[in-house]
Write a sequence for this structure.
């Protein structure tokens, strides 16, 4: 008597060809290679034309309002200006529609490419390893429409702009680019559980480090207003406006003070409006900065791109304990550019605790309290009789620090491995006093580190020691 019948095991691919129907059931179909996924082509928002036209109309309305307030006789010139600006708004709207129709982009794990087809065809491909930062900007009209502009900075080569995307898509694209940048620089493959790149507002590319934002520093409205109103720059304009007003009252024409008052208001607004609601947070290794009252801006900054830090305190800010922090960032270039100068300011007006938190977020291993400050030699008092005691400097194995200034105290910090060159300067008076100044050079930016009027022999020792420390720091970073 035989036991129960069982079905024979199916042969593996190494056992030879497969019987098409071994047990009278359906045939076994050999596996075929999975085709490569088709690249998803996206476009900017269809509201791009409306946003551009609206921005032009807002500019036109502002210009006309100013003309009406300042002009003694309106006449037909205002109408002509209005017609011209209206035509400009229409042109801007048509340009926005063409941008929407003629611009496409691809953002996946392999590449980021922007193609534009109008009179001529251009294709811009951005290597993820070259991405320096990704900023999101929202002019007031685009903000009302839920749109945003994405600026991708690739250092000295400039960058690329996408105008306009939905805010959710812009934030998703920023996270995707920053995550791919970190992975590409480390030679990491895309995580196997990564969310696939899709279109629309649900495209939330995964961050390779963390999905949580940790707040580093937040500027309160009180500190922002005090910092803007109570400052040396504002005080100068207030004094000028007051002097012009007094002269106008004596002459019987107080209206002459209006331009000076407008200048004061413009300065204060430039400091408060663009920095209103300032928040710095950290997600993984990336710092995120958001700010702006009407025009919202969101900046993504990687600490490794920061070449130096400058902490400033105005004499009028000292009673309130307020500081500002600026950085030199690789790729921003000349801070004379409005956007670049704004991006270089990473803490408008914060407390000492805010400054410490920002410095810790940039360089967690740096302890400035462990650096012993050193002063100029006594004979340097002839060159700096008033600010002699404010000039201090020092260094450890990680950074070099210099502090100086009387009305505005400035502390400058540069890591050794970010130094590009160092120089020794000796003017005629310094030569007579046997003094010299050491300059530490990084990329162009607001941070300028100089050790003023050191003993000439000590200055040469500092120069060669700095070169040695920079060489060791770069070698350790490469390892």
């Amino acid at each position: 008597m035989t036991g129960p019948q069982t079905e024979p095991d199916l042969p593996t691919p190494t056992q030879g060809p497969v019987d098409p129907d071994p047990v009278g059931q359906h045939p076994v179909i050999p596996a075929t290679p999975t085709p490569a996924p088709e690249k998803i082509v996206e476009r900017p928002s269809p509201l791009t034309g409306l946003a551009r036209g609206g921005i032009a109309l807002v500019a036109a309305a502002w210009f006309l309002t100013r003309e009406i307030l300042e002009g003694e006789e309106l006449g037909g010139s205002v109408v002509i200006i209005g017609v011209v600006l209206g035509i400009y708004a229409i042109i801007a709207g048509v340009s926005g529609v063409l941008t929407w129709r003629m611009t496409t982009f691809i953002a996946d794990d392999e590449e980021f490419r922007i193609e534009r087809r109008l009179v001529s065809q251009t294709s811009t491909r951005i290597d993820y390893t070259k991405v320096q930062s990704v900023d999101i900007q929202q002019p007031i009209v685009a903000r009302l429409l839920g749109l945003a502009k994405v600026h991708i900075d690739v250092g000295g080569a400039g960058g690329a702009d996408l105008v306009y995307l939905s805010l959710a898509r812009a934030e998703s694209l920023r996270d995707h680019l920053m995550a791919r940048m970190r992975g590409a620089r480390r030679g990491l493959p895309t995580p196997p559980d990564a969310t696939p790149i899709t279109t629309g507002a649900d495209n939330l590319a995964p961050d390779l480090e963390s999905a949580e934002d940790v707040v580093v520093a937040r500027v309160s409205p009180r500190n922002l207003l005090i910092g803007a109103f109570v400052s040396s720059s504002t005080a100068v304009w207030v004094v000028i406006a007051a002097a012009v007003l007094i002269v106008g009252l004596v002459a019987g024409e107080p209206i002459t003070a209006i331009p000076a008052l407008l200048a004061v208001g413009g300065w204060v607004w430039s400091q408060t409006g663009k920095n209103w609601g300032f928040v710095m947070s950290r997600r993984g290794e990336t710092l995120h900065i958001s700010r702006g009252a009407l025009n919202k801006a969101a900046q993504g900054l990687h600490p490794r791109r920061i070449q130096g830090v400058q902490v400033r305190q105005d004499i009028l800010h000292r009673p309130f304990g307020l500081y500002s922090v600026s950085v030199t960032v690789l790729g921003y270039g000349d801070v004379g550019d409005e956007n670049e100068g704004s991006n270089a300011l990473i803490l408008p007006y914060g407390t000492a605790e805010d400054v410490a938190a920002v410095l810790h977020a940039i360089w967690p291993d740096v302890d400035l309290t462990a650096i012993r400050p050193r002063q100029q030699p006594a004979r340097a008092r002839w060159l700096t009789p008033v600010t002699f005691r404010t000039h201090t400097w020092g260094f450890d194995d990680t950074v070099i620090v210099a502090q100086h200034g009387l009305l505005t105290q400035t502390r400058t910090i540069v890591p050794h491995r970010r130094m590009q060159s160092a120089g020794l300067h000796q003017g005629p008076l310094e030569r007579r006093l046997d003094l010299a100044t050491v300059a530490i050079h990084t990329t162009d930016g607001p941070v300028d580190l100089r050790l003023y009027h050191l003993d000439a022999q000590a200055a040469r020792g500092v120069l060669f020691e700095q070169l040695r420390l920079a060489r060791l720091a770069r070698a350790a970073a490469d390892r």
